[in-house]
Amino acid sequence: MALPGSLNRYLLLMAQEHLEFRLPEIQSLLSLFGGQFTNNQGTYGKSPFWILTIPSEDIARNLMKRTVCAKSIFELWGHGKSPEELYSSLRNYPVEKMVPFLHSDSTYKIQIHTFNKTLTQEEKVKRIDALEFLPFEGKVNLKKPQHIFSVLEDYGLDPNCIPENPHNIYFGRWIADGQRELIESYSVKKRHYIGNTSMDAGLSFIMANHGKVKKNDIVFDPFVGTGGLLIASAHFGAYVYGTDIDYNTVHGLGKASRKNQKWRGPDENIRANLRQYGLEKYYLDVLVSDASKPSWKKGTYFDAIITDPPYGIRESTRRTGSQKEIQKGIGKCPESHVPVSLNYHLSDMFFDLLNFAAETLTLGGRLVYWLPIYTPEYTEEMVPWHPCLKLISNCEQKLSSHTARRLITMEKVKKFENQDQYSHLLSDQFLPYQGHNSFREKYFSGITKRTAKEEKSSQE
Amino acid sequence: MKLLTHNLLSSHVRGVGPRGFPLRLQATEVRVIPVEFNPDFVARMIPKVEWAALLEAADHLRLAEVPKGPIQGYEQDETFLRKMHHVLLEVEVVEGTLQCPESGRVFPITRGIPNMLLNEEETET
């Protein structure tokens, strides 16, 4: 419990995965719960140890009920670069803040965690004994203690260069673990209905967190595919809508994406996916619709738009076109009237998406989407811009040696007015991103060059 | 398709603009599917509902007991909210059509899913 007027420092133990995505996730979640991300440690970069100041333990607990990037959070009682510094830091921690967790009626245990090094049992016991100076009055209970205290020793990040002594040592009271188990329980491997580009579970939860999704929100995915992104939002209590231009995918028909399976079964559709996880009550509707020509009425009713638009590589980038361009071989279902044009340029698609978000998001609502980039040519100016949307974060995930995708998060900060939809034409970056229209070609050009090189070297 | 969704949809046929709302709803197959009642969510939806459109659609589906408009203090009125919950979320059109009131263009609803795709000639530029 926090004393009034005192600053409460917490230690977050982060998972070492999706490194760039972690800070925006924590920041978004803290702002969702009324906290603010203030840190006394500068930038975190690759470290799994983050010290931050949070106004109350409630906010810390709420944060952990959502994050998939953080493993655990501790109330930080002391830290230092050596055992002596740690002990001195602990002696400076106000006793009145320790006492509620150490009194004689309570039970506790102390754990030692070391990162990038293994200690013997003997070494661990020595470290616990060294903490005897702390006013522990309760009884030790290793099975079900009321309070768990942890010593965390940081031996760096290089497994090939493990130091004799830790870089940092922390001591804190364990408060809660994060939601990393969701990654396994919602794994795409076990999901009933998947597509060729279904989003990895961890990333789908990160996206929902970047989007500040909360209970009773309405979340929309205009490129819904098999509905993976909707699942994460529904898990957090939001009601969900999806649209997709592909009739078969929306209906759950056609060829299966699983190896060894030819056609999709009756339990394979977006609604069934939500049902699999007990989230069917959050299913509003899905529609067959062209995201560039939306059928939504004028108004603001989406709290978040979270989506993974097609990049034109494994799923084609399409929009409706004239009769002459009807795609051949649509598949099992003949009513899937999809007159298509294959020339929907990526830059158009993102500007349509931003305009749509600016029009239909509630004020403060967020747009979260993936932007494919060709790394050798990428500059920050290429990230699509809109006068009503503020850029919150831009996190890269490498796809190949010369391509990547960036998770862009934007927040609606201004009411949409009619002239706003043409603003991008005046923007300097309208031209730079045009290069990405041939993203498909650039993606494959790297592969062609590599294959040619390999063939050449195998002939030598 | 739920009636909440119908209330948010508009025709995007070229030249139609705001006269494309609301779409005229006809159903050949309707089902009622129970959904867990969440008063907070329903209360949040009430200000977004276009009542005339909702009443017209409910009428076409021959639904009874549809409130004619939001009542004073609806946020705390469980009876009202339960009725709205039922109308907006539990009634689903499985087979039917949505018709643009201005152009007459028909969008089919199949297996509960509306198909809003148009040809290029029909859409707004």
Total domain count of chain A: 2
Q: What is the terminal-to-terminal distance of chain B?
A: 28 Å
Measured by DSSP, the beta-strand proportion of chain A falls in 15-25%
Structural class of chain B: alpha+beta
Keywords (chain B): Cytoplasm, Methyltransferase, Nucleus, Transferase
Family (chain B): Belongs to the TRM112 family.
Protein name (chain B): Multifunctional methyltransferase subunit TRM112-like protein
Pfam families (chain B): Trm112p
Which helices and strands appear, and what pairs or packs with what?
The complex is a heterodimer of chains A (460) and B (125).
Chain A: E1 9-14, H1 19-32, E2 38-39, E3 49-53, H2 57-64, E4 70-80, H3 83-92, H4 95-98, E5 107-115, H5 121-129, E6 139-140, E7 147-154, E8 168-177, H6 181-185, H7 201-210, E9 218-221, H8 228-235, E10 239-244, H9 247-251, H10 270-276, E11 283-288, E12 302-307, E13 319-320, E14 340-341, H11 346-360, E15 361-374, E16 389-398, E17 403-412, H12 430-434, H13 439-459
Parallel strand pairs in A: 5-6, 5-7, 9-10, 9-12, 10-11, 12-15
Antiparallel strand pairs in A: 1-3, 1-4, 2-3, 4-8, 7-8, 13-14, 15-17, 16-17
Chain B: H1 3-6, E1 24-32, H2 39-45, H3 51-60, H4 78-90, E2 91-99, E3 106-110, E4 113-114
Description of the structure:
Chain A: Residues 9-180 form the tRNA (guanine(10)-N(2))-methyltransferase TRMT11 N-terminal domain. The complex is a heterodimer of chains A (460) and B (125). Chain A is an alpha/beta fold. Helices cover 26% and strands 25% of the residues of chain A. Chain A has 13 helices and 17 strands. In chain A, the strands form three sheets. An eight-stranded mixed sheet of chain A has the order 2-3-1-4-8-7-5-6. A seven-stranded mixed sheet of chain A has the order 11-10-9-12-15-17-16. Chain A has a two-stranded antiparallel ribbon with strand order 13-14. In chain A, α1 (19-32) crosses α7 (201-210) and α7 (201-210) crosses α8 (228-235). Chain B is α+β, with helices and mostly antiparallel strands. In chain B, 27% of the residues lie in helices and 20% in strands. Chain B has four helices and four strands; from the N terminus they run αβαααβββ. Chain B has helices spanning 3-6, 39-45, 51-60, 78-90; strands at 24-32, 91-99, 106-110, 113-114. Chain B has a four-stranded antiparallel sheet. The longest helix of chain B is centred in the C-terminal third of the chain and has 13 residues, at 78-90. Chain B is globular and about 50 Å long. The mean pLDDT of chain B is 94. At the A-B interface, β10, α9 and β11 of A face α2 and β4 of B.
